[in-house]
């Protein structure tokens, strides 16, 4: 077997996530398929590249050597494809383009709508990714013009050198989602102790998410059972009363789910807009801020929280 860029990309994903499961998810393949691919790569090179341990995968000495050579090749290919794709899209559109990246957020729809009105004739594309680090890397490599990301409190992101950043919100509290018939659902504010008997569900592929939740639970002296999975699955389990899960305060109301703030707001994130240097990001930032204000006002629990905390976001613009 001849090694190709896709094989090197797989090795980098395994090293970055420390897990075959998470790497497979990032790459959009099944774990058995990725495991087979890794075994074939190792047979081709004649030695193990990763040690499989109970806690995940760690590169061997040879693995680290291979990775040090693989990363520049993968990054270079990504930059080449991104730049070529952008130039081709601009040529097809016959006008300016704006490539946006974002972690999952309730504000994306309103942001895009506002930008299309604000920037007529601009070809606007969108990439949503669970990994803020991946999006920041795409901006640094020229594959995106701007990225809206969140940074979990206590676990700062490393913003690549040369990129510009603006803070949309220095501290956004994270709320908790729970079933409508949960005993704490009738409370205006939920204590962590009220959730001591619940399973928590967290998506470990979201950068810093599990670390942040683990830190907060540990500080409160709690050690509940934790389920790992995406937040679409989490919502279905929350509705059935099988778990509780952290959520964005802008999450919309649902008849089958309660969204409540946590007392003392122990979980929080910082919201950042990161862009390539020299670009005029004022319209992009202003439309993002407007979309966030609209989403905050529509979320009843968050709007009440903003009013209690005398936040300017609660004011009518």
Would you list the SSEs in sequence order as H and E? HHHEEHEHEHEEEEHEHEEEHH
- The coarse overall form would be globular
Number of helices: 10
By secondary-structure content and strand pairing, the structural class works out as alpha/beta
Give the C-alpha Rg: 21 Å
| Low confidence ranges | none
Distance linking N and C termini: 61 Å
Strand order, sheet with most strands: 4-3-5-12-6
Number of strands: 12
- Main sheet attributes: strand count, strand direction, barrel closure: 5 strands, mixed
Mean pLDDT: 89
Strand content: 15-25%
Give a brief outline of the structure:
The protein is of the alpha/beta class. The chain has 10 helices and 12 strands.
Give keywords.
five-stranded mixed β-sheet, three-stranded antiparallel β-sheet, 10 helices, alpha/beta, about 325 residues, globular, 12 strands
Tell me what you see in this structure.
There is one protein chain. The protein has helices at residues 5-17, 20-27, 31-45, 61-93, 108-118, 132-140, 209-219, 231-239, 282-298, 300-308; strands at residues 50-53, 56-59, 97-102, 123-128, 146-152, 164-173, 175-179, 200-202, 226-228, 245-247, 257-260, 268-275. The mean pLDDT is 89. The strands form 4 sheets. The chain has a 5-stranded mixed β-sheet with strand order 4-3-5-12-6, sandwiched between helices. By secondary structure, the protein is an alpha/beta fold.
């Amino acid at each position: 077997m001849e090694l190709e860029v896709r094989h090197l990309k797989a090795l980098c994903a395994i090293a970055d996530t420390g897990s075959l499961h998470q790497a497979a998810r990032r790459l959009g393949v099944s774990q058995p398929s990725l495991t087979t691919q890794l075994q074939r790569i190792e047979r081709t090179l004649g030695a193990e590249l990763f040690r499989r341990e109970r806690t995940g995968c760690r590169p061997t000495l040879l693995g680290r050597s291979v990775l040090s050579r693989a990363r520049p090749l993968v990054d270079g290919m990504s930059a080449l494809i991104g730049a070529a794709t952008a130039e081709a899209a601009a040529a097809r559109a016959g006008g300016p383009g704006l490539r946006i990246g974002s972690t999952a957020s309730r504000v994306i729809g309103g942001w895009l709508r506002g930008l299309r009105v604000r920037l007529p004739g601009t070809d606007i594309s969108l990439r949503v990714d669970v990994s803020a680090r991946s999006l920041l890397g795409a901006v640094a490599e020229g594959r995106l013009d701007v990225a809206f990301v969140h940074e979990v409190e206590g676990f700062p992101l490393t913003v690549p050198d040369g990129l510009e950043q603006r803070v949309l919100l220095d501290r956004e509290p994270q709320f908790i989602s729970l079933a409508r018939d949960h005993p704490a659902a009738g409370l205006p504010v939920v204590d962590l102790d009220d959730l001591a008997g619940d399973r928590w569900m967290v998506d470990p592929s979201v950068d810093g998410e599990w670390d942040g939740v683990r830190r907060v639970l540990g500080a409160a002296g709690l050690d509940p059972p934790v389920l790992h999975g995406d937040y679409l699955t989490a919502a279905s389990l929350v509705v059935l009363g099988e778990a509780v899960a952290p959520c964005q305060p802008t999450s919309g109301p649902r008849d089958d789910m309660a969204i409540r703030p946590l007392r003392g707001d122990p979980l929080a994130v910082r919201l950042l807009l990161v862009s390539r240097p020299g670009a005029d990001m004022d319209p992009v930032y202003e439309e993002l801020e407007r979309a966030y204000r609209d989403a905050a006002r529509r979320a009843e629990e968050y709007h009440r929280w903003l009013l209690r905390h005398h936040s300017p976001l609660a004011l009518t613009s």
